[in-house]
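Sequence only, no structure available. Ideas?
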Amino acid sequence: MVEADITIGRDHGGRALGSLLPLYVVIFFGFVGYSLMITIFTPLFLKPDSAILPAGVTSSYRTIVLGMVLGVYPAGQFIGSPVLGALSDRYGRRPVLLISLSITTACYAVIAASLERLSLATLAVSLFVAGLAEANIVTAQSAIADVVDAEDRNRFFGYIYMCVSLAYIAGPLAGGKLAEPSVVSWFNYATPFWVVFGLLLLTTLGTLVKFRETNPPEKRQQISCFEAFTNLAGVFTDRRIRVLYLINFLLYLAIFGFFRCYPMYLVDEFHLGVSRESESIAWVGLPIVLANLWLTGYLAKRFTTRSLTFWSALLTGIFMIIVVAPPNRGALWVTLFLTSLALAICLPSCATMLSTSVGEADQGRVMGNNQALQVGAESLSGLLGGLLAAIMVKLSLVVLGIVAIAAAWVLILI
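Reply:
I predicted one. Tokens follow.
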């Protein structure tokens, strides 16, 4: 009866947050690991003395390979997210999440081992499988739609990105130190991933005990396995919301491209090492936490979701371009903060705009598709950012800023 009680009625506050709390913990620790990929892989691949690539390869080659490696994990998510979202509509949120967590946890052990052995092929495969099994945000968004009224979803979706941002603060700060042999002699690039493996193992056990189903059997859809695997086609065939899918894709391309490209800019322009780079990455997470603790909910009560999405997308693009304008490093504390604050409002707003456009029965399918678009954009942004950075690192941030502005323009036209 405990599971059924959680799903009776809709909730505006504490009861819903309490039932969803295990999901927020899962998201936090999952993204602690994900944040390490950007933090650790950037200096690992770009520094000339790194043994992960053959000696003597050009910096352009290293940049392109880095972009491809950063794109492997979200490429797996692109394939897996719509399937897992649809399966959670059919079989429930809890079993899908537990299976996903178990596979992802094992993959982090393989990632750590491949870094110790300097095996690029094993690293790529383990990243792809980990992404394929990743279902935390899809499950969280669907579970929020199960128990939270439409007018409160922006705030609860905002909590998701607050957890992500906290992870982007804690992960880089801790990971940057755990990867430094100067701190402890046996620390290396693999050490942070071994720590995340242990944390995810504990998180999986905690989720098994604490998380209760939010999608009861009487509300589940009778979806076939074939339909689950062809679910992504709805992005193109669902006339009601396909323009919203397009807008979200463009925004995700710009925003997650920013997260991949500005560390390249820091290393290339200011020659930062892993420890100093991790401090800057943590700084970018701070305004996202602040925004989702208060500002996102405050603005959502006073403006429509469409207005919030438009203005935050426009400002994200403008601030992203401004990042590369000042020549001194000190200006980054301001420009990175403003960019991060704008995108912090944009991310939950564009997800809410899509979620409130469909009914309860379609939440898992639509949020799974949306997550696939997000990670597909992440994967493409890694490759696109790497190619643009090979020409000029600053160019990648300028182009991605223009993409965000274009998304805002499409939204105002519909």
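The chain has 16 helices and no strands.
Hope that gets you unstuck.
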